[in-house]
Design brief:
The structure is a single chain. By secondary structure, the chain is mainly alpha-helical. The chain has 2 domains: 103 residues, no CATH class; 78 residues. A hairpin with a 5-residue loop joins strand 1 and strand 2. It is globular, with a radius of gyration of 17 Å.
Length: 215
């Protein structure tokens, strides 16, 4: 995927996520997300913090030092979540059209963030947040190269030893017993969201469930 298309997909997901957030009730904003320990509001707040440069990090590090990057990610999101929900939505919309991303990550990591965290919000609420198949495939490809080098908001799963094959696009990764399903479900699983397991099938699924402790 070229950079122009990549950023178009990021912008599309930001707009779709903002549109979904605008429809939520107060109770839904407080609902637990798929991202462990975070509410829907916390996740939305995290999605506003996607363009931090060196100056931003230098200002934040003294406050959150001692817990590394994962503590910074967690506590900065919780702090931003104190903002009014209208501001959180506006901040997500304000990033559309910009190609800035956080220091130390790539544009493809930004794509992973908006896709997976959008699902972290939508799925527990029983809502649909559509994702272009090519965007999910691009994100899944990037995740497959990261191994354990992911922030704690994306929990790596022991997928080595399995072959994942998408049923809705030409995409596969890995070697071993096959697991098949929609590319978005594969992406969610690779980022530590076992909620995707019911959408997957194949000869390797039982072994994967066992390794995840999911029956």
């Amino acid at each position: 995927m070229d950079d122009d298309t990549l950023w178009e997909r990021i912008d599309t997901q930001r707009l779709r996520t903002a549109d979904l957030l605008e429809q939520l009730t107060d109770a839904e904003w407080r609902h637990p997300s798929l991202c462990g320990g975070w509410t829907v509001r916390d996740v939305a707040a995290h999605l506003t913090l996607q363009q931090m440069g060196l100056g931003d990090l230098l200002r934040m590090l003294p406050k959150y030092r001692g817990g590394g990057m994962n503590r910074l990610i967690d506590e900065s999101a919780r702090a931003k979540a104190a903002a009014p929900v209208d501001l959180l939505i506006a901040d997500i919309r304000a990033m559309v059209g910009s190609r800035r991303h956080n220091l130390g990550v790539t544009s493809r990591d930004t794509l992973i963030d908006i896709i997976v965290h959008g699902q972290d919000i939508a799925l527990p609420l029983g809502l649909d947040l559509s994702v272009p198949v090519d965007a999910a495939a691009e994100a899944a490809t990037r995740v497959s190269t990261l191994g354990t080098r992911m922030a704690s908001v994306f929990r790596p799963v022991p997928w080595r030893g399995f072959r994942f094959t998408a049923t809705d696009t030409h995409w596969s990764v890995g070697e071993g017993p096959e697991i098949t399903g929609p590319i978005l479900a594969i992406l969610l699983l690779l980022t530590g969201r076992p909620v995707a397991l019911p959408r997957l099938e194949g000869e390797g699924l039982a072994s994967l469930r066992q390794s995840l402790g999911s029956g």
